[in-house]
Write a structure and sequence with these properties.
Blueprint (H helix, E strand, L loop, with lengths): L1 H26 L9 E7 L3 E5 L2 E4 L5 E4 L2 E6 L3 E8 L6 E3 L6 E5 L8 E8 L2 E5 L4 E3 L5 E3 L4 E2 L15 E2 L4 E4 L2 E4 L2 E4 L6 E3 L3 E3 L3 E2 L6 E5 L1 E3 L5 H34 L6
């Protein structure tokens, strides 16, 4: 009975974590470059069940030998193994602001690969798909949080307050001075660690020559959250949570009867 109690409880905890991830996705539906979180559920190791019994051997002195009968396997619960971001392309929307940049990603060499803007956060390199940039008081191209946007050589981009254009290849033209935008390629996005402020931590490489990528100036990439799909997932998750809750309540009532009724002296 206790085993079923914990199995139902683990299912409720797993669905609660799923709900938290989906609620965060919906809250960031209008955040540029946001990547939706997807919880990965995994079952606890299965237990092999056997019926313990013995078989009598018809000998003079009598002999019992074990003759266990295999019943089958039993699952002991589920848990959220990890929460992974979904790096599929978000829709682009035009803003008309020259400092807004968006990455339009086509085919890349690796199935789990993705291209990012490279920024400097507290002296360390980070990746983002949020191209909602601006120019600070010193003339540097920065994110809305004030982190420096890096060029192809890992340096900060000094605009001197001048207007600039960005080509589809990601080259910034500052009145004749060409500065390549720092675009980094991550071969396996599952190895990235998600941080706050729409940033990811990990290892990147220069953009491969066969990657189909274009940079759009005056546009922003929206989040890749599908609100209708997310709401449907939340409803399904809530139904599973309620089912486990009812099972847990039934076990609780059974345990209550076992304590208060079984063994009562009439």
């Amino acid at each position: 009975m206790l085993r079923g109690f914990y199995t139902a409880a683990s299912g409720m905890i797993a669905q609660q974590r799923q709900q938290e991830a989906m609620s965060n996705n919906i809250a960031n539906v209008n955040t540029p470059g946001y990547r939706a979180d997807r919880g990965v559920l995994k079952a606890f190791p299965e237990m092999l069940m056997e019926r313990m019994q013995s078989k009598e051997i018809p000998v003079k002195r009598g002999l019992d030998v074990a003759a266990n009968q295999r019943i089958g396997s039993m699952n002991t619960g589920v848990y959220v193994q990890e929460v992974l971001p979904d790096f599929s392309q978000g829709d682009l929307r035009e803003t008309g602001v020259s400092t807004d940049l968006a990455i339009m990603q086509g085919n890349v060499p690796d199935e789990n690969g993705s291209v990012f803007f490279t920024v400097e956060k507290n002296g360390e390199q980070r990746f983002t798909r949020n191209g909602n940039f601006t120019v600070d008081e010193q003339g540097y191209l920065v994110t809305n949080q004030g982190y420096y946007v890096l060029d192809g050589n890992g340096g900060r981009i000094q605009t001197d307050g001048m207007d600039f254009t960005v080509s589809d290849e990601g080259v910034i033209d500052l009145e004749g001075r060409q500065v390549p935008l720092g675009l980094s390629y991550v071969e396996n996005t599952n190895q990235l660690a998600k941080e706050g402020e729409d940033m990811f931590r990990g290892e990147g490489t220069p953009l491969p020559g066969n990657a189909q990528v274009a940079v759009r100036q005056g546009e922003l990439e929206g989040s890749n959250v599908d609100v209708m799909q997310e709401m449907t997932r939340m409803m399904d998750s809530y139904r599973v949570y309620e089912t486990n809750q009812r099972v847990l309540k039934a076990y609780d009532e059974s345990m209550g009867k076992a304590v208060s009724e079984i063994g009562r002296i009439g």
